[in-house]
Amino acid sequence: MPLNYHDQIHLLKDILADHQIDCCGSVAEYEQLERVIKSLMVNSEIDQNVKHILQDIYTYSQAGINSDNDHDHNQLHQSKFTNWIEVIDSYS
Question: In the chain, which stretches have pLDDT less than 50?
Answer without folding.
Answer: none
